[in-house]
Amino acid sequence: MKKTLFSKILLVFITCSIPLTEAFSQDEQTVASTPLEEEVLPNYKYEYIPDFTYEEINERIKSMDVEMSFELNDRIFSFIQYFTVRNRDYTKMVMSRKELFFPLFDETMEKHEMPLEIKYLSIIESGLDPQIRSRVGAMGLWQFMPATGRMYGMQVNSDVDDRMDPIQSTEAAAKYLKSLYRMFGDWEVAMAAYNCGPGNVRKAIRRSGGKKTFWEIYNYLPRETRGYVPQFQAMLYVLNHLEEHNFQLEDPAYALDHEQIRFNKAFSLDKLAELTNLCVADLEKLNPSIKNKKVPESNRTMAIRVPRSKSSYIKENLTWIADSLNNEPLMLLASVENESNPTPSSFATYRVKSGDVLGSIASRHGVTVSQIKQWNNLSSNLIKVGQQLKVAPGESKAIAQVSTGPTGQTLYTVQPGDSLWIISKKNPGLTVEQLKRLNNLNSNNIKPGQKLIIG
C-alpha cells in the first residue's frame, strides 16, 4: 500500500511569527473587543503543496548524483515530510541563506577531498546562522563548543569568537569531520560522532556487537543522534528537489565581495566606517567573530574584511586613514585574496550530452557543481540533453555602471558588494529613500546586475 500525504493543499497561517495556538487566542480576543457590525478578516493564504508517495521519493533518491549515497527508509521519509509539509518556512529560510555559504563550503570540502554533500550538515547544526548559540554553549555555523574550537585554532574569548567566523569555522569543521572519518571509516558514522562525540559512537559499536555502519548501530546511539543523520539525508534530498515540492526562491542573499586588510592596532568598526563611508552593518556581517564592534589590543594583527567596492579607496588613502586611527601604521596583507565567488560577465558554454551529470561536467572544466548551478540559476542537479550550460568564466569584461535607459533615464547597474547606501554615496544628492521611490522598492534588497534608476 502506498504511503501518501492526506492532502494536496495546506492552509498556511501567517501569524507574525507567533505560535498557531497563540494566534487563535489573539483572534478570539480581537473579535470580542470589536463591534459586531464590523467584519474581522482572517489573515491567511493558501499555498499549494504537491502530494508525493514513498515510492516517488525513493526513485528520486536513487537517481541523485551524489558521492554519499543513501537508501530511503521510514525515518528519512518522515523528515522529508517535515521539511516539505509541516515546516516549509524553515526550508525557505535555509534556501534564502544557502548562497551565502555554500560556495565557501564547496571550496573547503574540495580542498580536503571530502564529499560536497557534507555541507548540508551545517543546516542541521545551525540553520545557516553564523551567530546562533545553543543552550549548552555551542556556537556558529558548525556549532563548536569552546574547547573544541580552541583545539582547532579558533580564538574564543570575551573580545573575539572565531566560531562565528564562517571561513575559520568551516575549515575547522572539515578537519574535525575528516579526522572522525579516519577514525570510523564511514561518513554517516563520522557525522554521528560529530553530533554526540566519538566516545558515544564507540560505545554504540561495542553494544551492537562490533557493527560498523550507522544503521547497524542506530538503536544504540543517543536519541538526538538517531534523528541527526536522517535529518541531514532528508535535507540533502529536499534541497536537490525544490521544484518537485513547489519551493520558489524569491530573495536569496549573496555573500559580499570583499578583500582583507590588516590594521596593526586596536580600533572600532564604527570609526573605520566613519572614515571610509562604509556601512557598519556590512563590516559586522563580514567580520562576525568581532564582538562589540571593536578589534581588541590582543587581536591587533587580525585581518579585517572590507567590501571590495571600498578596498581600493582604503588603499589609496592609507596615510590619512592611519593618522585618523590614532597615528598607528596601517598594514595591508602581503597577498590580498578574493574569498568570494567571482561574478564573470562572460562564460565558456557547454552543451549537455547523453550520460552527462553536473559532477562530471564540473570536473571536466575545473569548477564546482555549486558554481555551475549558480551561474545557470539551477535549483537542482537535473539537466537535459542539449541544454546549454555556462561552465567557466571567460575573459572578464568591465561592466558599465551608468547607462541611459530607453526613456532617457539614467540607470545604474548594481555591482557586487553594492548596497543602496553605497550607491547613494556614489551619487551625491541622492538618498536611499529617493532610490527606493524611483525604483518602487519595498525593501533594501538589491542584486548584482540589477539596473536602478538614479536620475
CATH-scheme architecture of the largest domain:
Orthogonal Bundle
Q: How many beta strands in the DSSP annotation?
A: 12
Span between termini: 64 Å
Physical arrangement of strands within the biggest beta sheet: 6-3-7
Query: What is the structural class?
Result: alpha+beta
Helix share, percent: 40-55%
Radius of gyration from the alpha-carbon trace, in angstroms: 25 Å
Give average pLDDT, whole number.
Answer: 80
CATH topology of the largest domain, anyone?
Answer: Lysozyme
- Which spans of ≥5 residues are poorly predicted at pLDDT below 50? 1-38, 327-345, 395-400
Share in β-strands: 5-15%
Shape: globular
Please work out how many helical segments DSSP would assign. Answer: 19
- Reading off the top of the CATH hierarchy, the class of the largest domain is best stated as Mainly Alpha
